[in-house]
Automatic annotation (TrEMBL):
The keyword Transferase belongs to this UniProt entry's keyword annotation: yes
Residues annotated as domain Hydroxymethylglutaryl-coenzyme A synthase C-terminal: 176-270, 289-390
A Pfam family per the record: HMG_CoA_synt_C
Keywords from the UniProt entry: Transferase
Stretches assigned to the Hydroxymethylglutaryl-coenzyme A synthase N-terminal domain: 3-169
Protein name listed in UniProt: Hydroxymethylglutaryl-CoA synthase family protein
BP terms from Gene Ontology: acetyl-CoA metabolic process
InterPro entries linked to this entry: HMG_CoA_synt_C_dom (IPR013746), HMG_CoA_synth_N (IPR013528), Thiolase-like (IPR016039)
Species in which this protein is naturally found: Corallococcus sicarius
One GO MF term: hydroxymethylglutaryl-CoA synthase activity
PANTHER family in the cross-refs: 3-HYDROXY-3-METHYLGLUTARYL COENZYME A SYNTHASE, HYDROXYMETHYLGLUTARYL-COA SYNTHASE
Protein family per UniProt: Belongs to the thiolase-like superfamily. HMG-CoA synthase family.
Length: 417
């Protein structure tokens, strides 16, 4: 019998400060509607140098272990997905392993491919367990990132930061994966990148959207073909994508999920043949269906709109937001997930929401995680952005969180939890 494998539980960590997106728009002399309606943003997380990608990852993982009572003696793999590395050699996973005092008998590594690195790590963990190589052990996958484009750039309102930690096991209370159905699509493009030594990403913004949509079309069609072979979706009066209860997307900014959903629908509308097919001239309108977006996507974006882009973690923040909003209602229903990493690689996969999803999400206490944050002015945001990355302010960590305390002789030291 095929093993049930997937995500058992998750936890979220976010920087303790945020800026209101309308404040930012006004400070930049931009109509706030461009950032709210045009990009779909509400708030944007701001980290200070003490809240680096390591401390956010360790905080999320420690929170997961505590909230869900994870038996760390059974964890056999720790993967950190990130594009905010702090060292060319020493992985963030080894920092997290040490800070959490995890058992030594464990595989640890980082996974990098822009925003796709977390999903690549998740699939390594899922397939490790599904193959039997895990021998009953569990895996921790932590997606952690700080999205930085720089002050007064076009990307500025699409920054953010945070981490999502996932427990992967044979008890998939949140999401049982449809192992083997994943569709993937890769191409060699320069849409978004961050050369070694740079703190801010470089991006060809509009081109990056085109690359995302193009790669996701390939990934979605790959998944759909396999899902049809397995009889999970079919050509019917409902489009194949409409046969998924919800679809969660990589969310660099919330409006992107709307564009992505229209693209998935367009794939179905273009490929449909026979009596149910839509004439070419009506396809674009049918693809942009507000009703479909409202039913299948909108409720997943509650956290993303308040945190901003979290690169590798952004899809998993959407999963958290979706299950936080509708965990009970979605029990036993199939959802689709689309991961995209610039450079680029897209992966579309699916899974079935578990019956204990709402109970697991209640333990994640996401309302408190967000409510504890402090709203700061644009002046304070700019001050934080201009601080040197290697000289963190001496602030005592909040209970249960980690902070970078200092970098001494190129060695990072952390305090907290
Ligand atoms: N009221 C309402 N809407 C308005 C408006 C107003 N006053 N003014 C503009 N808008 C709308 C525009 O019509 C547009 O909507 P559509 O896309 O639906 O047409 C939207 O607001 C944005 O306007 P612009 O395209 O003019 O905005 P921009 O050129 O300043 O930049 C951006 C937008 C390209 C997304 C930029 O923020 C950026 O470069 N962001 C970073 C790159 C990014 O996130 N890419 C996503 C794909 S790559 C990826 O996913 C990987 C990753 O995580 C980075």
């Amino acid at each position: 019998m095929k093993k049930r494998v997937g995500i058992e539980a998750l936890a979220v960590a976010v920087p303790r400060r945020y800026v209101d997106i309308e404040d930012l728009a006004r400070a930049r002399g931009v109509d706030p509607a461009k950032f709210t309606a045009g990009l779909g943003a509400k708030e944007m997380a701001i980290n200070d140098p003490g809240e680096d990608s390591v401390s956010l990852a360790a905080t999320a993982a420690a929170r997961l272990i505590k909230q869900q009572g994870v038996d760390t003696s059974k964890v056999g793999m720790l993967v950190v997905g990130t594009e905010t590395g702090v060292d060319h050699s020493k992985p963030i996973a080894s920092h997290v392993h040490g800070l959490l005092k995890l058992p030594r008998s464990m595989r640890t590594f980082d996974s990098q491919h822009a925003c796709y690195g977390g999903t690549a790590g998740l699939m390594a963990a899922v397939e490790w367990i599904a193959s039997g190589a895990g021998a009953g052990r569990t895996a921790l996958v932590v997606c952690t990132d700080i999205a930085r484009y720089g002050l007064k750039t076009a990307g500025e309102p699409t920054q953010g930061g945070g981490a999502v930690a996932l427990l992967v096991s044979e008890t998939p209370d949140l999401l049982a994966m449809d192992v083997g159905l994943n569709g993937v699509c890769t191409s060699d493009v320069y849409d978004f990148w961050r050369p070694v030594g740079r703190r801010e990403a470089l991006v060809d913004g509009h081109y990056s959207i085109t690359c995302y949509l193009d790669a996701m079309a390939g990934a979605y069609r790959g998944w759909r073909e396999r899902a049809m072979e397995q009889g999970l979706v079919r050509w019917d009066s409902k489009l194949p994508s409409e046969q998924l209860a919800r679809i969660l997307y990589h969310v660099p900014f919330c409006k992107m999920a709307r564009k992505a959903h229209a693209q998935v629908r367009l794939c179905d509308l273009e490929d449909a043949a026979g009596p149910g097919s839509v004439p070419a001239e009506a396809r674009d309108e049918a693809a942009k269906s507000q009703a479909s977006y409202d039913a299948q996507v909108a409720k997943s974006l509650g956290l993303n709109a308040r945190v901003g882009n979290v690169y590798t973690a952004s899809l998993y923040l959407a999963l958290a937001g979706q299950l936080h909003a509708e965990g009970a209602a979605l029990a036993n229903q199939r959802v689709g997930l689309l991961s995209y990493g610039s450079g680029c690689c897209a992966e579309f996969y699916s899974g079935v929401v578990g019956e204990k999803a709402a109970e697991r999400m209640a333990r994640a206490d996401l309302d408190t995680v967000l409510a504890k944050r402090e709203r700061v002015s644009v002046e304070e945001y700019e001050r934080l952005m201009n601080l040197p990355y290697d000289a963190p302010e001496a602030i005592a960590p909040e209970p249960g969180t980690f902070r970078l305390a200092e970098i001494h002789e190129h060695r990072r030291k952390y305090a907290g939890a």
